[in-house]
């Protein structure tokens, strides 16, 4: 069974689909044929319903979140929905649980499984293919993203956390400490010796800058932490957030720069940033002096991506993205140190 992780991607996906079929019984769905939508780390399935109320079944990767942390993620999503913020709704199992733990013979470990409502709209894009040309007006779409981010940050600043709430932290240690959340990015195999020295110098500088920047409630709190193109849907003028799997405590600017960092150096980066900032300011203060810190968080975000491709080097996505991510991190490091 330990050979599961050496299987080709499609074979692993099929085994997880079999687990999903069994899991559906815990939601009272018999004879379900879940359709795989995305499989990077979690396996995401669409559950098609005859009455049109489709759902998403998430089979979580093993060991990423404790049960308490997953309960906390889903509790935040419920709170957002109660606040009138468009987000997927948690569908409890037949036993009334937010998620169930499921095991099957073809997968080596038990997996946390939850079900969420299927949300309308078109993806804003994907990491692999970039911006979706169907979104039309880029500035308007990303102004919607900015409005969404501001509303989330307002909600979390005002929300009393439930007892037992726990999530990881995209703080100084989580980003550039000895054991960052997404891995020791400075050891990435894709880096050459000179690039490693550059990244080491920049990491030290970022560590010092984050310490000085501080963690006041208006700068730091519960954030989505993964507003890349895959995780946002556009439905008219609404932007709907998906995939709260990486949510945790972190800086609001880190949330914002995630939207455009992978476009660094292109005309799109400026257009996206301008839209996000304009939209954000509709609902939450964002003084110009705060924008002076964007380069710090763009570099920290690039470091996290470099850690991701390093620690997930067995995945097709990490392999395809690694050269571009390394180039991005080194470019941003040079610009930051040179500034």
Key attributes of the depicted protein:
15% strand, 10 helices, Phosphorylase Kinase, domain 1, alpha+beta, 2 domains, Aminoglycoside 3'-phosphotransferase, Chain: A, domain 2, five-stranded antiparallel sheet, globular, 339 residues
Characterize the structure shown:
- The chain is built from ten helices and 13 strands.
- It is α+β, with helices and mostly antiparallel strands and 339 residues long.
- Strands 1-2-3-5-4 form a five-stranded antiparallel sheet, sandwiched between helices.
- The termini are far apart.
In terms of topology, how is this protein built?
Blueprint: H1 9-24, E1 35-39, E2 43-47, E3 55-59, H2 67-82, E4 99-102, E5 111-117, E6 122-123, E7 125-126, E8 130-131, H3 138-158, E9 169-170, H4 172-176, H5 193-213, E10 220-223, E11 232-235, E12 238-241, E13 248-251, H6 252-257, H7 267-280, H8 288-291, H9 294-311, H10 316-338
Parallel strand pairs: 9-13
Antiparallel strand pairs: 1-2, 2-3, 3-5, 4-5, 6-11, 7-8, 10-13, 11-12
Helix pairs in contact: 3-7, 5-9, 5-10, 9-10
């Amino acid at each position: 069974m330990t050979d599961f992780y050496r299987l080709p991607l499609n074979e692993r996906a099929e085994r997880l689909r079999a687990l999903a079929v069994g899991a559906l019984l815990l939601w009272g769905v018999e004879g379900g044929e879940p359709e795989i939508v995305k499989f990077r780390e979690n396996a995401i399935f669409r559950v098609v319903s005859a009455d049109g109320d489709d759902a998403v079944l998430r089979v979580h990767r093993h060991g990423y979140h404790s049960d308490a942390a997953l309960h906390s993620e889903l509790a935040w999503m419920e709170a957002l929905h109660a606040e009138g913020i468009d987000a997927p709704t948690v569908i409890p199992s037949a036993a009334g649980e937010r998620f169930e733990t499921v095991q099957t013979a073809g997968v080596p470990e038990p997996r946390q499984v939850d079900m969420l409502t299927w949300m309308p709209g078109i993806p804003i894009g994907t990491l692999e293919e970039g911006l979706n040309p169907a979104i039309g007006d880029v500035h308007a779409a990303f102004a919607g993203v900015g409005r969404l981010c501001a509303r989330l940050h307002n909600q979390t600043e005002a929300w009393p956390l439930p007892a037992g709430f726990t999530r990881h932290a995209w703080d100084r240690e989580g980003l550039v400490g000895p054991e960052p959340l997404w891995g020791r990015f400075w050891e990435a195999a894709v880096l050459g010796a000179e690039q490693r020295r550059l990244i080491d110098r920049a990491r030290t500088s970022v560590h010092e800058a984050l310490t000085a920047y501080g963690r006041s409630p208006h700068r730091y709190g519960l954030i989505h932490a993964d507003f890349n193109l895959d995780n946002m849907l556009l439905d008219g003028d609404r932007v709907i957030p998906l995939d709260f799997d990486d949510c945790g405590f972190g800086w609001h600017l880190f949330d914002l720069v995630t939207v455009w960092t992978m476009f660094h150096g292109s005309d799109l980066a400026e257009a996206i940033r301008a839209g996000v900032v304009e939209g954000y300011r509709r609902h939450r203060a964002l003084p110009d002096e705060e924008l002076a810190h964007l380069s710090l968080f763009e570099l920290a975000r690039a470091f996290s991506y470099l850690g991701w491709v390093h620690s997930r080097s067995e995945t097709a996505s990490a392999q395809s993205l690694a050269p571009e991510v390394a180039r991005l991190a080194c470019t941003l490091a040079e610009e930051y140190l040179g500034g």
